[in-house]
Amino acid sequence: MLVYRGYARTAPQSTVLTIGNFDGVHRGHRALLARLKAVAGAVGLPSAVLTFEPHPREFFAADSAPARLTTLREKLERLAADSVDLAYVCHFNTRFAALTADEFIDRVLVDALRVRHLLVGDDFRFGARRTGDFALLRAVGERAGFRVEAMESVVFDGERVSSSAVRDALQDGRLEQAGQLLGRPYSIDGRVVRGEQLGRQLGFATANIRIKHAKPPLQGVFAVEVDGLPGGPHRGAANLGYRPSAGLTNRLLLEVHLFDFSADIYGAHLSVRFLHKLRDEIKFADLSALKAQIARDVGAAKAFFQL
Question: Which CATH fold topology does 2-159 show?
Answer without folding.
Answer: Rossmann fold (3.40.50)
